Every structure is written in C-alpha cells, then in structure tokens.
C-alpha cells in the first residue's frame, strides 16, 4: 500500500432503467496508479467485480505517483481531487493506493479481497429512498430521480469509462510488466444538483459509445443514493 500525505482543512450488469429501493447496484471506486507496485492485485480484483451484475466498478487513476518514474496514461488531477475529497470528508490527512471506496461511505485497501467482498455484501440490498430512471435517445441522456423522503442536497454525476486496456509499463515500480486495466474512468462530470426533495429531471447531451454511469450521491462525498449503468 502506498500512502501520500496531504494537508486537510478539518472544517469539514445493470441496464438503464428504474432503480428501486432494495435493488440498488453497489458502486465500487478504485483509486489506483500504473506507477504503484501494490496496485496490480487490486486492479485484477476490480476486473473480477465487473462480472457481478449488481456491482458497478470504476477505476480512477490518480496522478500523484507520476513523479516516481512512470506517468500514468489514464490519470487525471480531478480523480486525485476526488480521492482527497473523500479523505477530507472522513477527517483524514492522507490518501493511498490502492484504495476502494464502496457506496461512497466505506473504504478498504484494494488488495484485501475478503474485506472488499464483505463490505460489498453489507451494501447489497440496502434500501434507498431514491428511485432513478435513465434512458438514452438521439444523443441525449434523460435522467429522473425522485424521493418521498428528503435526503438532503445531492450531486448527480455522469461517468464515462473504457471497459479495458492493457498497458506495457517501461519505467517505475512496475517496469517490465504488462498490466490489464478495466473499467477505466475517462470522464467524471457533475450534470446536476438536487435539493433531495421531490423530483429531479435533466436531459444531458451524451456522445460516443463508451459505457456511462449515472450516480446520485449525497453532497460532500457522502453515500451513493442511486446508480444506473448504460453499456
């Protein structure tokens, strides 16, 4: 496990369709890096999780290990910022790879498959007051979400990812290895903000054939309230 210190301000496979309480998929975010020698087992585990219909795995490649000799070709600063956001929300002053965040609320070292699966199992079947419907037509993504129970402010994310790609690593800690990566996030964008009462509806332009995930998450890096995937 590789850890990096940071300064923190302490003030702090599903098809698209209705997402009903009790059948919510479990979103698993893996923070990883091509330059991290501890990460390949977690990358492989994420690929395995992709075979489970009720799990949405997403690999966010961070850029803070680029300095050690290999620049991660999938890394983006905003993925590092998201991981730091989780750390700040949890009152922590460091981040590490490989880290998995399950359902937005529980984190675990990604090389501990028993712990990862135990946390995923705990999230399976959890009721959510939020129902969501996602459909796609003529280059537009139609998103609706609603609740009868106020859930507080929430953020609506649109995530695009590449299903898989093999990378030959020439330098750094993984030099000489060819590693298979899966569910590689390429875009993570805010497409709406919702007060968390009544209904939310938004039509969002969408291009290309890459898989898409729509996610409703409590503002401030809280729980994932609903998620759906288009492949």
UniProtKB/TrEMBL annotation:
Signal peptide start and end residues: 1-21
Keyword Signal part of the UniProt annotation: yes
Keywords annotated in UniProt: Signal
Keyword Signal among UniProt keywords: yes
InterPro entries reported in the protein's UniProt record: DUF1223, Thioredoxin-like_sf
PANTHER family, per database record: LIPOPROTEIN LIPID ATTACHMENT SITE-LIKE PROTEIN, PUTATIVE (DUF1223)-RELATED (PTHR36057:SF1), PTHR36057
Name of the molecule in the record: Uncharacterized protein
Organism: Roseivivax halodurans JCM 10272
